[in-house]
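User:
Note these tokens:
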Amino acid sequence: MAITLKKLLILVSSSFLLCSVSTGVKADGPQVLPHLKAHRAMVHNPPATGLLVGNSSDPFEKVNRGVWSFNYDFLDRYALRPVAHGYADYMPQPVRKGIHNFLSNFREINNVVNNALTANLADSGISAGRFLVNSTIGVLGLMDIASDMGMEHKPMTFSTVLGKWNVANGPYLQVPFTGMNTPRSIVGGIVDNLYFPYSELEWYWLAAYFTLNIIDSRADMISQEEVLDKSFDPYVSARDFYLQYQEGLVLGKEGIASEQLKKDAADEKNLEEYLDEIDD
């Protein structure tokens, strides 16, 4: 089925909106560096380079802060947050789990293709097996039978693929109604939403799927609300965490550990140089 202009617009707008509500660390994602590590790493650079985590930057901070205020203080507080809390409070947990499994299974084809694009054929095969098992025995993915069989979830977005291909994030962007983005994540989201089965669905089914995905993702982040609300600067906290998380997806656990060792060594060297200057 050919992708019509209307369907493409639905896909693009939905992919943007998902970026605003799916940037927390999920159970199936890799661990990222603690939030304060990002601040410590930035202390050594910002005046000279302006670089943030993942070699990104925030050249549009003044505009971004204005958009952030609308997205966070208005849109999220008065629309997404109440809906997410209502969903979490009143939807039975087994039903929520089934919906989450279904949505996750829907994205397995993305994982098959994207893992293959990074030459990780083993994870691509596992993702294909998960889709086959959960779509059949698991009743369209409502049950995660594949995990019970030892097939671990191997998520991979096209944005992460681009990162592994050494494509830079580009500048950090706050987009109205859509939230935290970079040019790389925007392009990645668009490509991801052009895969099967998205390409085979009518626009109204796509709208229903993405709406449900937004609610499910936002409900998963309820536990993080207090940390952000009490942050000294929620804009900076959210920005750094988002970029840090994206970098963690690209580096993987081993890459993060290696990167952190380098940063710790640089910190120690800077401290020694500073102490030497004092002694002089």
